[in-house]
Structure formats: structure tokens, C-alpha cells
Design a protein that fits this description.
Shape: elongated
Number of helices: 21
Amino acid sequence: MSLAVLTSRALVGLLAPEVTVEVHLANGLPAFTLVGLPDVEVREARDRVRAALQTGQFDFPQRRITVNLAPADLPKEGGCFDLPIALGILAASGQIPADGLNRYEFAGELSLTGELRPVRGALALARQAASSGRILILPAANAAEAALVKGVTILPATSLPAVVAHLCAHTLLDPYSGQPLAPPPTYPDMADVKGQAHARRALEVAASGQHSLLLYGPPGTGKSMLAQRLPGLLPPMNDDEALESAAVHSVEGSFRPERWGLRPIRAPHHSASTAALVGGGSTPRPGEISLAHNGVLFLDELPEFDRRVLEALREPLESGHITISRAARRAEFPARFQLIAAMNPCPCGFHGHPDGRCRCTPDQISRYRNKLSGPLLDRIDLLLEVPALPASQLQSATAGERSACVRDRVIRTWAIQQDRQGKSNARLAGTEIERWCGPDANGSKLLATAIERLGLSARGYHRILKVARTIADMNEADTIGAAHVAEAIQSRRGLSEFV
């Protein structure tokens, strides 16, 4: 038969829509035509496929070859169509049986020798293959990643001849059974932090309710050290969260199976562009906020970031997702990250230092802090000053409480929130705040006074309520009392200095 039809998949954000690969052989002058909105990488498949077939001692038809990637209006990118195109040519020319190809989905990039190279987005491909009920044949290097999806049969292959031998029933490919994953790397421990009791408390509150946190203080006081220990306080991810996080890294091409279930922490340099932070490109790719999905995004030296880059964080902080729109492409990525940022109090960094070494003028300090806009700061739940510790305290301080002990308390607090509302306190919105975060009479009176004196916005008012709810949950209190509200107000009060 001169026509063969196979199934593969494209990548659009985290989705992997089905692509039908149709290969037709016709009489006429030899030609190889690819249609169906292929990009440069896909068009280059013609040369890779020709060389791989000839190197593998297969017959490359000297006929007019037309390959259609349907649907025609869906952009196709990447090298994952090499394998289905090569198999389609072999099936259309009668070198392999065409019957039974509809049981499989194929993805893989071919080298000139016929070896199969890994492709991006194997996790997304496997998720969609599981819903279709087909068997997925892909490069062996992608097998461990794709096998993380339950309910899909993975047939890993190392080369084009190995796939052909399987389809011809000569030497069958063995389904991937999986190998035990190496234990994931551990997070830095809170026991390394000496002193800074207020900072440790704020970090536990932030972890218990998934609240955003801004640390400020002189250089060398432990702001970065504290931020790096936040992921170690968070509960382990469940299977759905782990799959979502891994899918984003798979699309970006940075997923490693040994980090499965480990909450990501991303710390981009302050020179990062808007596209690097929130995602973008002519073909939309996830940015740092999506790569930090279900984990922590740490922005050190916050005022040194370009103001436009920081302003782009405002919508994702509220919505938990980012939509990237281009002239011909549109993709949506999840971005439910926990923001923790650090900054110095002034340009030189030593404002308020005990030895009085700061020489910044009030105008310089004001301009430095005003690099952070009011709307962005209004979306940050907690602000904490991390002061410089005197030498005597540093030398006499004992090791702090270990992360494992703090994490146990955080897990109990998360369980209270999940049983009550099915989500963390930081994600409550609208009527949910009114329902679950109402303080008692004394707490309401204290909060009313704070609104008047601090000039809180409606968003700031709601964020104080959510932080107070978390503090109450940490104390296993059913009602939010004045003490809980007071601590929440105190943890946010310093934000008024920056606005």
C-alpha cells in the first residue's frame, strides 16, 4: 500500500494534542515534501530520516513522498516526529506491516546512524497516551520519565531497527518495568541557622500557610541561608502535585527522574529578563515562575531586578497561572509558587547596622526602596527584618531546631487546612476568607485599629486575615483571637515603610 497512517503528539504548553502522521508515496520525480505547519526542526527531519533509513540498510523509496502532519493548523516543533515519519515511509513502501500501527503512539528524534535520541515533553506525551489507551514507543532515555505516569505501557527503544524488529514481530521490545530511583538530594537543615528566632518563626508561618515572605537586612545576616531552607520545611508533594511539577520541567527539557517528588526551588539572577522569569519566546516556553510550580521562587537582591520584570509577577501571584500569548501561539502554564525574596535596607546595605557604617542619604534610601511598587508589595504576606547579630551572640548561640521537627509541625498545620477547606490558607479568596478567617470580637477590634493607622488596602486586610488564620492553625485554635491577629499585623507592618 502507498499510504500509511501513524499517531504522534505535539507540545502546546503542558498539553500534547494528537497529531496524525500520514505518509503517501506517489509516482513521479523523487521528492520529499513535509506539510502541516512544520517548523524548521521538523522540516530538517527529511535529511535525518533519509540518512537513518539508508544507514539502517532500509530501502529509501525513489518516489514522490508526501508527509502530512494533521491537523494542519496546529504548529509542529521539535524532533519527536522523526521516528513516526521514518516508520510511515517503511509502512507505505511495504517494508513493515501497516496493520496494528494504530495500537501505538510514536515519538523520537533520529540520529544519522538510526539511534534514537531523547525528546522534550515525554511526561506530557505519556499522560495523553494513557488517556488514549495506546502503547507509547519512545527513546530509552525518556523511559524513566514517561513511566512516572500511571496506566500507560512504555516500550523503550534504542534505535530505528529495534522498533522495526518489534513491529515485524522478530524481536519484541520489553515494556519498561522501572528501576528504583536514587534517593533525592536533601535540603539544607534549619539546624545550621544560629539565633534569628524571629526569622525562624516567620519561616515556619510562611511554610505552614504557603505565604509569600520578604526578608530585609544588612549583608551577611542569613537572608539567603534562611530562604534556602524553606523548601525543607514544606510537606512532601502528593502524586498529582509531583506530576504537575515534573510535567513543566519535562516540557522545558530539564526534568530529572531522581528529583521526582522533590519540591523545586528556583533562584534566578537579578539580570533575568521578563521572558526568563514568566516565560515567553516565539514558541512559548515556561519561565522560572512555572518551573517553581508547587515549590519556592527565591528572588535575592529584589530591588536589583528590572522593575518591569517584577511587575510581571503581580498577576501570577494572585491567579496561580500564566498565559503567554503570541501572534500565532498561545500557551498556559501553571505558576502556583511560593515567593520568598531578600533585599538590603539601602544601596550600601548597612542602614541600621550597629556600627553606623551606612553613609546613604535619606533620598538614596527612598529611591532604592521605591524600586518596589506598592501593588507588588501589597501582594506579599510577610515582611521580616533580619538584623545583624553581635559577635557574642554568634559565638554563644547553639544549633537551632532541625528542619525535620519543624516540618512535622507544618504537616500537622497543612492537614488542618486541608480538612477544613481543601487548600492552604494563602490560596483562600473572596467568600472563603469571610467563611474561614473571621476573628473574634477582640481580634476584629484590633484589626479595625490597624486598618485605620496603617492605611491597609482591602488586599492587605485579607492577607492579614489569612496569616492570622495560619497562626491560629499552628496553635490548633478554632477561632482567630487577638493574639493571632496581633502577630499577623506585626509581620506585615514593616511593608508600610516601603510604599
